[in-house]
TrEMBL record, chain A:
Regions crossing the membrane: 46-65, 96-118, 130-148, 168-189, 221-242, 275-297
UniProt keyword Membrane, yes or no: yes
A Pfam family annotated for this UniProt entry: BPD_transp_2
Subcellular location: Cell membrane
GO CC terms: plasma membrane
Primary location group: membrane
Keyword flag Membrane: yes
InterPro entries reported in the protein's UniProt record: ABC_transp_permease
Name of the protein in its database record: Monosaccharide ABC transporter membrane protein, CUT2 family
From TrEMBL, chain B:
Official protein name in the record: Monosaccharide ABC transporter ATP-binding protein, CUT2 family
Gene3D superfamilies the record matches: P-loop containing nucleotide triphosphate hydrolases
Keyword NAD: no
Entry superkingdom: Bacteria
Keyword Glycoprotein: no
This protein's GO CC annotations: plasma membrane
Species per Swiss-Prot/TrEMBL record: Pedobacter nyackensis
Length: 324, 501
């Protein structure tokens, strides 16, 4: 038998194979892993990371990075929670504006879109490196969150709002629906639309794309805006699940999402990668987290293992592309 | 001192050097003369250890040597000063000179004092009045060049190769450089001097070696030559290529440029293009020739709207003034640019052939916001057969194809926009003879259909083979516009050679 014949197959499905082996190992050791309830549990846990990572994938495909997602998530979650609970009050003008759940959510998502677009604007207009611009936004948005919440959680948002993070629809958790729809839209965007094609083109060769008449700045601003919007949606899910907007919510989420993107095979230098790869990456991280908890591995070791997996994934990816 | 025996070098199937024999002597300045692509830089890269694989022998001081890398060559005593200087801008003069050869104390600490002293003595020897602690970024290009020479002297190089040393420096700095070269000659160093500027060579060189198509054509004492002889020897070759059948009568102005100027983004007072004016008729092929640094590529880029901030002048298309400030404007106005460096500016190497060809016209393939992929497939299939692009399918990755096929993809993506004016920058660089001829045929047939074509090329035979008219540029200005029936290699080259000294 010639193993070389199977090599392309292995490379193509390496993350899927890795996931399969991972599941097999965990289920051999723990009988709690392969149950329906645990399956939904994992899916619900990773739905936020999937939302964020989809946006991150688009950004990374253009050879950028968005470090601000965690803070944007917190700010938008807090904004929605605050509007829902307290509305907007202007005592001087004797004016009070109350918000419905949908209204407050819309404002939250719009705020995320705006913050993302601002990132894109700074990056394209002033040629600030994406790393720096979004690092600045990470700090700014976190500061604004603390200002808005005065450092205290905003809790008690009502059962209706809690449906978003904890409810079920057609026997599937609502957050899983949301992340599923986000993934579906993103797959269509990347494979079937002009914008999607431009995203790959810019990441693959920015100068050739510019010469081909593509408006680089516009595409980049849109991509960062999408990333901001998806972070905001993640913020809504987190806030709803906890029935509370925490001022420190989402810290270091950017790292988890970058990990998902990278494990999913997207190149940090842009132009190569897929949404489904990222989804697989997010699932691998989720399953790993879940498995380590089920196996009673100490949380300290969990971090070490996670880091090692990320490193391993990239090393395998690199050595494969070199052999080709 | 340095003898080259029967050196040949192939790149793929192309012979870059063919049985080269030459000798470089101590205490002399040897000028290497040749057109672009004659093999000068390949030869220099072999001598300086950049290309370790070649046929033949290099004999240095009586011993056969074969350098694996430039560092080895340097340690042996052969240094090269490249056209683009290899200095680190934010390190000081001293740190640059000693980079990789730092003097350390017995503690392993950098011996800054010793390095500074040595640098000072080198700078004194080269009469460069600059503090050794100055950062490279703060000194002039000409002074940077002297620092490169100091670097070569530090390793006690016996052979110093200078590749186009005067391309970026002022006349005064050239004088200083020549004084230094004269001093080095007195110190019995061997200098190899490569330049397009013939008058410079006559001033500084003792001997000359003329290369053409990878062969040594002639060598001897430069005093026995004059400029016309040299030009004649550089170009004298038989042309084996398709030629235009007949001279077309072209009528009707399609495109014109008036007083186009382009400032240097790095040095605002300097101009890369000065008062460029010309016109182009429907169906005409305008060949643009110039040597390195003449501003050929910049001309096409400026027309295509790539440097709107630094450009001034007027562009007219079909008689009406058109303002073009980005590539999208240019495409809308009916322009297309096939860039010089297809890997850097032309192709999306990681994407497949079909996506590369479709990228300029995706707008026309949208239906309700979704791309109609089958339209793109049709477009790709159309150009694959029309331009004979050899791929197994449209799904093949562009980066895996040969240079000729890649170039056809870039042309195809531009033809898809149905341009009125096609700008070609070195359309046949680095591709084999057959693909070249196919591209020439294609260009001729496009012109027959009424497209106006501006083709920049550094290959004279190519220019002469398919142009209707030849425009020659030198140092950012147009030095000649010659109808094809009056054009020959000598008169074009004469107009192209800068007269800066």
């Amino acid at each position: 038998m010639d193993l070389k014949l199977y090599k392309p197959f292995f490379i193509k499905f390496q993350s899927l194979i890795a996931l399969f082996i991972l599941c097999l190992l965990i289920s051999l050791i723990s009988d709690k892993f392969l149950t329906v309830s645990n399956g939904w549990n994992v899916m619900r846990q990773i739905s936020v990371n999937i939302c964020i990572s989809v946006g991150m994938t688009l950004v990374v495909l253009t050879a950028g990075i968005d470090l601000s997602v965690g803070s944007v998530l917190a700010l938008c979650g807090a904004l929605t929670a605050g509007l829902l609970k307290n509305g907007l009050a202007f005592p001087q003008a004797d004016l009070f504006i109350g918000f419905t759940i949908l209204g407050a959510m819309l404002v939250g998502v719009l705020a995320g879109t705006f913050l993302g677009a601002f990132n894109g604007w700074a990056i394209t207009k002033f040629k600030v490196p994406a790393f720096i611009a979004t690092l600045a936004m990470l700090t700014i948005a976190r500061g604004l969150t603390l200002l808005y919440t005065q450092g205290f959680p905003i809790s008690g948002l009502g059962d209706d709002f809690a449906y978003l993070g904890t409810g079920w629809f057609l026997s599937i958790p609502v957050p899983v629906w949301i992340s599923g729809i986000v993934v579906l839209l993103a797959v269509i965007l990347t494979t079937k639309t002009r914008l999607g094609r431009y995203i790959y083109a810019i990441g693959g060769n920015e100068s050739a794309s510019r010469l081909s008449g593509i408006n680089i700045s516009r595409v980049k601003i849109i991509v960062y805006a999408i990333s901001g919007a998806l972070a905001a949606i993640g913020g809504l899910i987190v806030t709803s699940r906890l029935d509370s907007a925490q001022p420190n919510a989402g810290s270091s989420y950017e790292l988890d999402s970058i990990a998902a993107v990278v494990i999913g095979g997207t190149s940090l230098s842009g132009g190569k990668g897929t949404i489904l790869g990222t989804v697989l990456g997010a699932i691998i991280i989720g399953v790993l987290n879940n498995g380590l908890v089920l196996l009673n591995v100490s949380p300290f070791w969990q971090q070490v293992v996670k880091g090692a997996v990320i490193l391993l994934a990239v090393i395998i990816d690199k050595s494969n592309s070199k052999n080709d | 001192m340095l003898v080259v025996e029967n050196i040949s070098k192939h790149f793929g199937g192309i012979k870059a050097l063919d049985q080269i024999n030459l000798e470089i002597r101590a205490g002399e300045v040897t000028a290497i003369i040749g057109e672009n692509g004659a093999g000068k830089s390949t030869l220099m890269k072999i001598l300086s250890g950049v290309y370790p694989d070649y046929e033949g022998k290099v004999i240095f001081n009586g011993k056969t040597v074969n350098f694996d890398n430039p560092k080895q060559a340097q340690e042996c005593g052969i240094s090269i000063i490249h056209q683009e200087l290899n200095l680190i801008p934010y390190l000081s003069v001293t740190e640059n000179i000693f980079l990789g050869r730092e003097i350390t104390t017995s503690w392993g600490e950098l011996d800054k004092k010793a390095m500074r002293l040595k640098t000072q003595s080198l700078l004194d020897r080269l009469k460069l009045n600059v503090n050794p602690d100055t950062l490279i970024i703060d000194i002039k290009v000409g002074q940077q060049q002297v620092v490169e020479i100091a670097k070569a002297l530090l390793t006690e190089s016996e052979v110093i190769i200078m590749d186009e040393p005067t391309s970026a420096i002022s006349d005064n700095e050239v004088k200083v450089l020549f004084e230094i070269i004269n001093d080095l000659r007195k110190e019995n160093k061997a200098i190899v001097y490569i330049s397009h500027k013939l008058d410079e060579l006559f001033k500084i060189a003792d001997r000359y070696i003329i290369l053409r198509d990878g062969c040594v054509i002639e060598s001897g004492n430069i005093q026995e030559m004059n400029a016309d002889d040299v030009i004649h020897k550089m170009v004298g070759r038989e042309v084996q290529m398709i030629r235009k059948q007949s001279l077309k009568v072209t009528t009707g102005e399609l495109f014109s440029v008036k007083n186009l100027c382009l400032r240097n983004p790095n040095q605002k007072q300097e101009y890369l293009l000065k008062n460029i004016s010309f016109n182009l008729a429907k169906g005409e092929i305008l060949g643009v020739f110039g040597l390195m640094g003449a501003g050929r590529t910049e001309l096409l880029e400026a027309i295509f709207g790539l440097h709107p901030k630094y450009r001034s002048g007027e562009v007219r298309i079909s008689g009406s003034a058109t303002s073009i400030n980005c590539a999208a404007d240019a495409i809308k106005a009916g322009l297309a640019l096939v860039p010089e460096d297809r890997k850097k500016d032309g192709l999306l190497l990681d994407l497949d052939v079909q996506k590369n060809i479709g990228i300029t016209t995706l707008k026309d393939m949208e239906h309700l916001g979704m791309l109609e992929i089958q339209k793109e497939t049709q477009l790709c299939d159309k150009y694959r057969s029309e331009l004979k692009i050899k791929t197994s399918s449209g799904k093949q990755t562009a980066g895996d194809l040969s240079g000729g096929n890649q170039q056809k993809i870039v042309i195809a993506k531009w033809l898809a926009t149905h341009p009125k004016i096609l700008l070609l920058d070195e359309p046949t660089r680095g591709i084999d003879v057959n693909a070249k001829n196919e591209i020439y045929k294609l260009i001729l047939s496009l012109a027959d259909k009424g497209m106006g074509i501006i083709m920049v090329s550094s290959e004279l035979p190519e220019i002469l083979a398919i142009s209707d008219r030849v425009m020659v540029m030198s140092e950012g200005i147009i030095t000649a516009q010659i109808p094809i029936n009056e054009a020959n290699e000598a008169c074009i080259l004469k107009a192209a050679i800068p007269k800066s000294i």
